[in-house]
Amino acid sequence: MPHFSWSAAEANTEAPGQPGSPPTALTETIAVLEAGAVDRESARRLPSQEIRDLADAGIGKLRVPAAFGGYGLDWVATTRILLAVAAADSNVVQALRAHQAVVEDALWQGDTFSQRWLHRLGEGALAGNAWTEPGAGGLARSGTQLSHGPQGPVVHGEKAYTTGSLFADWLDVTAADDQGRELGVFVRRDQPGVSVRDDWNGFGQRTTASGGITLDGAAVDPAEIRELTDRFPYQTALYQHILIVALAGIAEAAARDAAAEVSARKRVYSHGNGDSSAHDPQILQAVGEIDAAAALARASALSTAQAIEDAAAARELAEEEQHRLAIEAELATARAQVALHRPVLDAVTRIFDALGASAVDRAKQLDRHWRNARTVTSHNPWIYKARILGDYRVNGTEPVRLWSVGTPSSSGAENAVPEKGSPPDSGPAQHDEAVRNSATGGAN
């Protein structure tokens, strides 16, 4: 049995035995997602229908309260389900990353705007991000402009690393108005003036739809505009948590595939250790090492889920306690990121030691595990997280929760990160110079 499964009791749904609860509706959908993963990877086919099926089964409303049509799960129960999705196809859990942040911000704010959005999310709507911008410029100012046309507000601009937005109903867009205020606006994706491109060219996580968006006079409902302030304080940690879930899913998929391939293998080496690969102790050792890495990654993801849950549960507490728990969540996800990158990358390479040269057959797509893991671990560079952890341990320096990436201006005047607001995206480190992001924590 794979590690990444869940039961009704684990999911802790409001009505676990009823049709439509996450264990009932999602189990079959996730199995279908897993069954098609190799074919999608071979053809580089986007999981558009699969994500819509998951949305219909409730993947987008795991955290939405029952009163708004969701399941009201905590972050540990939610993470168990997301781990199963990640093990089926790590691209999909990353593609839904920005959506999770939109849900979380609505839960945190609790105002009329957010309640309207919780109703919308409870009805199955999916949200994607459009925050990061291509090109040079300041690190914390949006180049996308909100203006007022004859028919009302419109936005113009270019966005990059819009992971998952091709699958979304709504785009969470950052823009500046004529007064220079930084705004968050929600834009319908299926309208004239919005062009979403599948031009992500990474060698891993190839079907996350992390391409660009052109906004050319896209209409904005005035009710969907608000200042980009006071985002939920653990947003950076949440974005990193979803990447940890993706990494854990990749490790589990590698362990699953390694075991299946070894079990089915008929050929043996004359200088091996028996008449069956399934009983060769050296091969079993290799598979066991992959299994251990997958278990470590799963435990790390569930641990960071608890830290995220603690931060989320602080909404009614004093601001000082909110700050403390947000810092704890940031530290927890940083530790997991630093601790996991080497074991998981080693594990997804070790699979080839267990199987030999036949494992490199393109039809098997076993290299996708390394390509996906290497891509995920290239986000939000772990070397900086290790330094931040050391600085905290030695000097008590709190991690920076609002950070950005881009090309600095010569004057430095535009490089400061705002005190309030925490836009999402940052891409893999190798693309940083081509992207500017008024963001924390990466939604790519």
Notes on the protein architecture:
This is Acyl-CoA dehydrogenase family protein. One of its GO terms (biological process) is L-leucine catabolic process. Pfam families: Acyl-CoA_dh_2, Acyl-CoA_dh_N. One of its GO terms (molecular function) is flavin adenine dinucleotide binding. It comes from Candidatus Nesterenkonia stercoripullorum. Strand 5 (about 170-175) and strand 6 (about 180-190) form a beta hairpin. The chain has helices at about 10, 20-35, 35-45, 50-55, 75-90, 90-95, 95-110, 110-120, 235-265, 280-310, 320-355, 365-375, 380-395; strands at about 125-130, 135, 145-150, 150-160, 170-175, 180-190, 195, 215-220, 225, 435. The protein has 3 domains: about 10-125, Orthogonal Bundle (Butyryl-Coa Dehydrogenase, subunit A, domain 1); about 130-225, Butyryl-CoA Dehydrogenase, subunit A, domain 2; about 235-395, Butyryl-CoA Dehydrogenase, subunit A, domain 3 (Up-down Bundle). The protein is globular, with a radius of gyration of 22 Å. Helix 10 (about 280-310) runs antiparallel to helix 11 and helix 11 (about 320-355) crosses helix 13. It contains 13 helices and 10 strands. It is of the alpha+beta class and about 450 residues long. Residues about 5-20, about 415-425 and about 425-444 have low confidence and may be disordered. A 4-stranded mixed β-sheet has the order 1-5-6-9, with helices on one face.
